[in-house]
Amino acid sequence: MFDLTGRVAIVTGGNGGLGLAMALGLAGAGANIVVAARNAEKTAQACAEIEALGTRAVGLGVDVIQEADILRMVSQTIEAFGRVDILVNNAGMTVRKEPQDLETGEWDQVLDVNLRAAFLGARAVYPHMKSQGGGKIVNIGSMFSIFGGGGSGAPYSASKGGIVQLSKSLAVAWAKDNIQSNAILPGWFMTDLTAAVPEQQPERYDLISRRIPYGRWGEPEDLQGAAIFLSSSASDYVTGAVLTVDGGYSVT
């Protein structure tokens, strides 16, 4: 049920961090991968790692804010592989400012990257998934999908809360087409973006760690199982679900 051999997955922001970990996980289960991201050098390195697992990888330069780039991403995937089975909407960003200090353009940029792009990607793959009999959409949220993001996290939290409702809405709309739409909410993970926290913010790091029942932050590989499950036939009767992968942080 977890075999993805022959299936094709697009992973936005798939050239590093959690996106690359999920891409590698899907490739390890047999999927061919399209890495859609902006940094060409990182994308090439990611594709090499993926292909070392024995599947095909194609890197595409994509700015998810640009609708034309999203449409081209999907059309080039179809040209390369003839199908698209899985879309992982992972690309994301934030602007760390107090709400009163945010420029309107900064708010718009966060919402565009984190939420609008997920909608555009899902809409673009829909006709292809429908015509081939089904597909999987996996939207990546955050702990801030359910918790307030504090003074510096208003647009990020708003966008990630929207990811949950978008996932549920697509699930209801597209169930008739055998397209499952679900969300993963990662907890506190150790990535390049957070690697400096233990040294630079030791009190914050300790506070978060104490709240996690496992007593440690997640490693990127800890997200792979959830991504494989929601991309495989094992989850064919799972849609509109919100899966937290947080070591128990949200229930403590």
How does this structure look, described?
This is 2-dehydro-3-deoxy-D-gluconate 5-dehydrogenase. GO terms for molecular function: oxidoreductase activity, acting on the CH-OH group of donors, NAD or NADP as acceptor. Pathway: Lipid metabolism; fatty acid biosynthesis. The mean pLDDT is 96. The protein has a 7-stranded parallel beta sheet, with helices on both faces. The chain contains 8 helices and 7 strands. The chain has one domain: NAD(P)-binding Rossmann-like Domain (Rossmann fold, 3-Layer(aba) Sandwich), CATH 3.40.50.720. By secondary structure, it is α/β, with parallel strands linked by helices. Helix content is 44%, strand content 15%.
How would you describe this structure in keywords?
252 residues, alpha/beta, Rossmann fold, 8 helices
CATH architecture: 3-Layer(aba) Sandwich
Measured as a percent range, the helix fraction is 40-55%
What's the name of the CATH homologous superfamily?
NAD(P)-binding Rossmann-like Domain
Low-confidence stretches: none
Strand-residue proportion: 15-25%
The CATH C-level name is: Alpha Beta
Q: Kindly state the number of beta strands.
A: 7
Distance between the ends: 32 Å
Mean pLDDT: 96
Give the overall form: globular
Q: Supply Rg.
A: 17 Å
Helix and strand content put the structural class at alpha/beta
Largest sheet: 7 strands, parallel
N-to-C series of helices and strands = EHEHEHEHEHEHHHE
Number of helices: 8
